[in-house]
Every structure is written in C-alpha cells, then in structure tokens.
C-alpha cells in the first residue's frame, strides 16, 4: 500500500507539474506581487519606518516570504477546483490508484512552485541589499519553517478547492492570508501599534514565524518564538489536513 501511495503520488504530481510548466506565468505572477511590494516598501516607505538596526529590506524580507506563499496557494485551490469541475476526480476513481494521492499531488506541486517563487524573491532581495551572516544550519531552519508554513496553507487551500461553487470562490480565501502579515511584526515593530491591534499582532501566527526567520538571518537567539511558530504551523497543518480529508471523502462518496 505504501509503495502504491508513493508511486501513484509521484505520477500524479508529474501530471500537475506539467500543468504548471505550461503556465509559467502563475509562478512569475506569484513572485511579481511580493517583489513589487518589497520595492515599494523599501524605496518609498522604508526611510520613514523606524525598525531598528540593519537595512529595511532585511527587516521586512521574512514577511514578504510569507506573503509570497499566501499568494501562491490560491493557484492550488484554482487547479483543484478546475480538476473537480472537469470530472478528473471521477476518472481517477475508476482507476486502481490511491485516492489520497490525488490531493497530495496538488499539495506537492504547490510546494515546488512556491519554493521556486521564494527563491526568486530572495534573489531580488539580495540585489536590493539584503545581507545575512546565517550559516548553513540557519538557512536549513528557515527553509524548514517556510516548507512547513507552505504545507499548512496549502492544505487550507485544498478545502475551498474541493468545496467552492465558483472559481472566484476557490481562490478568494487567500486574500485574508495575504493581508495577515500587515497586522504583525513583518513591516513594523508591534510596540508601535495601538493596544488592541498590538495584542492581535502579538498573538497571531505570522508574528512568531517572522520573528524566528528574522533572528535566524541575523544570527540572533531565536528564544521561544521558534516553538510558538512551529506550534502554529503544525496545528494549522493538522486541522487543515483533517478537514480537507473529510471534505474529499464527502465529495467523492
């Protein structure tokens, strides 16, 4: 059964990746919006924002990376919704393949596409002056957190991809996720915010994730933020995976 799962998932992932390579504009679009935001914040607003030591592009890059992921997962919901409407799932049901492999194929495709977009954004950040003394271990830790965050949001994307009644409904869920980093420590320190807004910013998932990535890049002690960040990512991932599984079973039953 395990062998069938990995084999079926690999074949189905290859199929999904072919769709992505035929529309490379989705990856480019996913990267362009965060890059444009990074350019605007650094060169237009950066001089007026008090963020502490270091360059502003280094300060804001972790938040931009999370926005990149939030932008990219909307395409996962779109591709999944399109497959549902085209009857692809019904065809797969008549074939001797592991049913969960269909969802995992979309999830892994999302992960690969988002990693490419993240690499583009980091490359542009280096051109804009981003510098880090992070060692290989810190880079691997950052990559691990971003992968975990991508998986968590992608499984959230699976839910509207399966349950939405329109294309716009399938992808609109990502808008609040894109907006969430703006009410966090991603662009300004939370202690500059008014009381209720600061409380929300300090207790939502983006802030500890951003703080952890920022500390890893700056080679600062990460403290308790890393455990809070991991707890948020794992918690969201588990809940989203379970809800997506229930939605999938209802859809194909």
From TrEMBL:
Pfam families: ABC2_membrane. It is a multi-pass membrane protein. It is found in: Cell membrane; Membrane. The keyword Transport applies. Belongs to the ABC-2 integral membrane protein family. The chain crosses the membrane at residues 24-45, 57-81, 102-130, 136-158, 170-188, 226-248. It comes from the Bacteria. Keywords: Antibiotic resistance, Cell membrane, Membrane, Transmembrane, Transmembrane helix, Transport. Residues 25-251 form the ABC transmembrane type-2 domain. This is Transport permease protein. PANTHER family: NODULATION PROTEIN J. It comes from Actinoallomurus liliacearum. The keyword Repeat does not apply.
């Amino acid at each position: 059964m395990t062998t069938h799962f990995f084999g079926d998932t690999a074949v189905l992932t290859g199929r999904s990746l072919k769709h992505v390579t035929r529309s490379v504009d989705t990856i480019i679009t996913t990267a362009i919006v965060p890059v444009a935001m990074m350019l605007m914040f650094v060169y237009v607003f950066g001089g007026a924002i008090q963020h502490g030591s270091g360059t502003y592009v280094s300060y804001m890059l972790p938040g931009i990376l999370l926005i990149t992921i939030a932008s990219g997962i909307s395409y996962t919901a779109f591709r999944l919704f399109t497959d549902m409407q085209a009857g692809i799932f019904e065809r797969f049901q008549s074939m001797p393949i592991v049913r969960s492999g269909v969802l995992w194929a979309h999830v892994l495709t999302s992960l690969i596409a988002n990693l490419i977009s993240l690499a583009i954004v980091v490359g542009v950040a280096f051109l804009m002056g981003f510098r880090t003394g992070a060692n290989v271990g810190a880079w691997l830790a950052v990559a691990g957190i971003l992968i975990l965050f991508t998986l968590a949001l992608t499984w959230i994307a699976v839910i509207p991809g399966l349950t939405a009644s329109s294309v716009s409904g399938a992808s609109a869920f990502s808008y609040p996720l894109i907006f969430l980093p703006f009410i966090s420590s991603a662009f300004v320190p939370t202690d500059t915010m008014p009381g209720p807004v600061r409380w929300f910013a300090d207790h939502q998932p983006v802030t500890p994730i951003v703080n952890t990535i920022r500390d890893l890049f700056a080679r600062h002690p990460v403290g308790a933020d890393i455990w809070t960040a991991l707890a948020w990512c794992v918690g969201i991932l588990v809940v989203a995976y379970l809800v997506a599984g229930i939605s999938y079973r209802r859809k194909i039953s």
